[in-house]
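Homework help board

Subject: predicted structure for assignment chain

Our instructor gave us this sequence and asked us to write out the predicted structure in token form, then describe one feature. I got the tokens but I'm not sure how to describe them. Can anyone check?
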Amino acid sequence: MQELSGMSEAVRDVAMARYRMSSARSMRLKSKNCLKKRWTPAGVVLPNEQLVPEVIASLIRMTGGNFRLLTRLLTQIERVLSVNDLHVISTAVVEAARDSLVIGPG
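My token output:
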């Protein structure tokens, strides 16, 4: 009887791990779709130029699909662009915004 209960816990743990992985994957896909459709938080105005795929990849990698973190990062990118009088979002701008927010390793 104990073997069955132990087995069910193992099966439950595997199922929960798969659920967490699929949930994180779906959040990354949602954030990628939002970035491709030029979604920005209310009040944030980014340049009209198309985002380079490397920039989108770095934003998704840095935020991990966390929309709150993505909002903070996009707001900081807008500030970096306006302070430096830039009109194109590059990976250097994204990294500068990340460093000023102290997000992730850098």
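Reply (TA_rk): Your tokens look well-formed. For the description, you could write something like this. Residues 1-5 have pLDDT under 50 and may be disordered. That's the kind of observation they're looking for.
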